[in-house]
Queue: 2 jobs
Job 1
Amino acid sequence: MKHDPRSILWTLAYRALARPLLFQLSPEAAHHVVMAGLRVISANPGLLEMLRLAGSAGDMAHSREVFGIRFPNPVGLAAGFDKNAEALAAWGALGFGFVEAGTITAKAQPGNPTPRCFRYPDLKALVNRMGFNNPGADAVALRLEALRDSDLRPRVPVGLNLGKSKITPLYEAAADYLHSFRRLFDLGDYFVINVSSPNTPGLRTLQGREELAEIFKALQGFNRTQSAAKPLLVKIAPDLEPAQIEDVLALAEEHRLDGIVATNTTLDHSALAGRRDETGGLSGAPLRHRATGVVRFVCSRTRLPVIASGGIMDADSAREKLDCGAALIQLYTGYVYRGPALVAEILRSLPPNQSGHTPASASSSRAIISGLSTCTPSALLPNKCPKSRRSPVTRYSQC
Ligand SMILES: Cc1cc2nc3c(=O)[nH]c(=O)nc-3n(C[C@H](O)[C@H](O)[C@H](O)COP(=O)(O)O)c2cc1C
């Protein structure tokens, strides 16, 4: 793999300076410090340009079109990092090909009591039980509207990840998701229905057939009445049984969703044996193989594009997900442990335009946070999952 001096500098600066300082703080305090810095940069065109020059942004060799959106590269920021869509421009400048903001709920909510995020540095893992702390769909919509009308719009696609408000009963979940979807519709390039966080009581039961059908129906019903429908995806847990995943996929296809995000954090804490355990979802290196197994299974069962997330900590684990058929990948915990050099490291390791998704003409590019352009129906996109990889599996296997 080629090395470039900027990447080596980022690696050294993060490992030797930033990470030791940040890791002196609690995970949540460190996150606040990072987000405060990125908010300042996102509001300042000069600083953004400096970050772009210092980073790896702007390399279109890995650009691809997925569910009708042109992504400058396949490496995105996973949901939960920029929950409130506060530093969108900075992520693109840091080299990410897209950002998924959220989880956003219809109603503002404080999340669970702190502490609610925990590091396991020897395992390169995190456990979190944040509980969708966010200012609510209306507040995020106001921020995105202001951003849309400014020069500080992000240059990469922005997905908005939607969750159920904690106080909303499960039987009213569909209406709760629909409220957020309607309010934010014009402001996101794609949307993710998050029914897989382990930290909102009962949320994962929404992955059941009837519950999910009701949510898909409500959101797609609205989506189809718009002049240009937005790509709608569902994010699944890594703890589902194959039969449950097949149910989700069948429903996603029936309701013409545009893709699957696999996976969220796991409730399997066996990797933490002998350490202090904490309630919440486990992410990072111990999630890698479980998530890869789910991604592979999903790719073997559907033509829908997959955004893979879970345990991507280096170039190898990134390639693994793409080799299984993922169209795009997302980072969270890997970014915490490896810092900004991780994106460039992954991109350097990828052959240009890897994936079955063919590059599209510039004219089909989607305007970012504009809601102006239309999407290519996913049915028209080429199948990125070679038939040769479609082996019958009873339990997930690895690539
Ligand atoms: C602290 C923390 C907060 C998260 N918050 C969310 C969230 O709000 N919504 C969501 O869909 N996923 C959330 N996630 C899950 C990540 O988006 C990602 O799917 C998961 O962590 C697996 O990827 P990773 O191993 O690279 O971290 C969160 C993860 C962490 C570590």
Note: The CA atoms of residues 31 and 81 lie 8 Å apart.
Job 2
Amino acid sequence: MTSSENHFISLAGSDFLWMKIPVTYLPARQLYQEWASTYDDRSNPLIEAESKVLAAIIGDVAGKKVLDLGCGTGRHAVLLAKAGAHVTGVDFSEEMLVVARSNAAGLDVAFLNAELGAVPLEDPFDLVLCSLVLSHVPDLRPAMKEMARLTRPGGKIIITDLRTDYWFKKTKKIRKFGTYVTDGFKHTLSDYRAAVATCGLKQERLTRIYFDNAIVARFWWFFYLKFVAVGYAWEFSKPSA
Ligand SMILES: C[S@@+](CC[C@H](N)C(=O)[O-])C[C@H]1O[C@@H](n2cnc3c(N)ncnc32)[C@H](O)[C@@H]1O
């Protein structure tokens, strides 16, 4: 379902500054279908800040089997493979996967078109990564269950996302991506804990993502995100049997 109409769009990521402008609404899968060919073109401060945090917490992945769920154009898959990991990237957008396959040409990455909550794989991974994806799903549980199933005992899960518990006043919010808008869903820390508890995972570290000086120098209108976290990086473990 596509609709082009006036939506209130928040400015500079805030819930305080709004402008009513005509934008096209697309469900998430279609949004990424339209956006795929230009997704890598524009620099995105959230992606930049998240990359820095992830690089600091991910550890040595050489020789490890890594699953990148909602891999998009392969941003992390490519870096992980270059660091020596054997990577599988999963996404429900074939168009994003086309770009990912091209970005990862010659590297040890296999790609698969599937839904987060129903991944047709059996063999577990040492590390499962789900980066900037979960605010697209209304319910965390199916995705968390799949992450738990696909992680080996003793393995690790890392989830990064926008800090929707703080930034979204409502459960469901219309969010701007590129030139389109789609639905975004609020997930509180309690929602995560409840989802994690149902699939036997243990919560480890929670790192808040801020914009640093280098980012704020280029995206000055986001200066307040130096002080208020824009996102989270969560680490979970699957207890050894
Ligand atoms: C913001 S992009 C992030 C891509 C990549 N993880 C990164 O950080 O660069 C979100 C990705 O999640 C994918 N996605 C969203 N919902 C999904 C779902 N239910 N199942 C599989 N993929 C999904 C989209 O197609 C898109 O490629």
Note: The domain at 3-237 is CATH 3.40.50.150 (Rossmann fold).
